[in-house]
């Protein structure tokens, strides 16, 4: 994938999770590749010491993966997720006696008495949408 073809541009916003860009298989785009979607501001950043121009400020709108490729365009879906939710639950269990091991519940479980057992329940991370993607936003590989 040549550097000369980037940045690409958003040509359609399907929804808050999917966008279409103006690059496709003829540009070397393949399923599974990751990209940064961003808006470039008119603000030129400048080094305060050397006064060298450092380029325009880029505002990230999210990251995504290619999920569909045509010759001249491709679809990107957001690949960001929130951290999984974890919660610890305490449950009372009847533990039948087991003469070979004390296992869960220690001596109480060994005696066949109810024991409290803590479990961590983890739900998968929730998908995060792009941050207000717009027609003409820029896209580059990451």
Write a brief caption for the model.
The protein is 4% helix and 50% strand. It is mostly beta strands.
Description:
The protein is mainly β and 142 residues long. It is built from one helix and eight strands, in the order ββββββαββ. It has one helix at residues 106-110; strands spanning 8-15, 18-21, 34-46, 53-69, 74-78, 85-94, 114-123, 138-141. It has a six-stranded antiparallel barrel with strand order 1-2-5-4-3-8. Strands 6-7 form a two-stranded antiparallel ribbon. The longest helix is centred in the C-terminal third of the chain and has 5 residues, at 106-110. It is elongated. 15% of the residues are buried. Residues 98-102 have low confidence and may be disordered.
């Amino acid at each position: 994938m040549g550097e000369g073809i980037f940045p690409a541009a958003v040509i359609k916003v399907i929804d808050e999770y999917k966008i279409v860009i103006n690059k496709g298989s003829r540009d070397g785009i393949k399923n599974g590749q990751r990209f940064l979607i961003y808006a470039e501001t008119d603000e030129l950043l400048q080094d305060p010491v050397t006064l060298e121009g450092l380029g325009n400020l880029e505002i990230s709108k999210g990251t995504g993966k290619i999920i569909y490729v045509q010759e001249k365009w491709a679809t990107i879906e957001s690949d960001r997720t929130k951290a999984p939710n974890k919660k610890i639950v305490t449950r009372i269990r009847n533990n039948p006696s087991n003469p070979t091991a004390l296992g869960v519940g220690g001596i109480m479980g060994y005696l066949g008495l109810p024991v409290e057992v803590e479990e961590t329940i983890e739900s998968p991370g929730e998908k995060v949408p792009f941050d207000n993607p717009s027609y003409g936003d820029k896209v580059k590989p990451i």
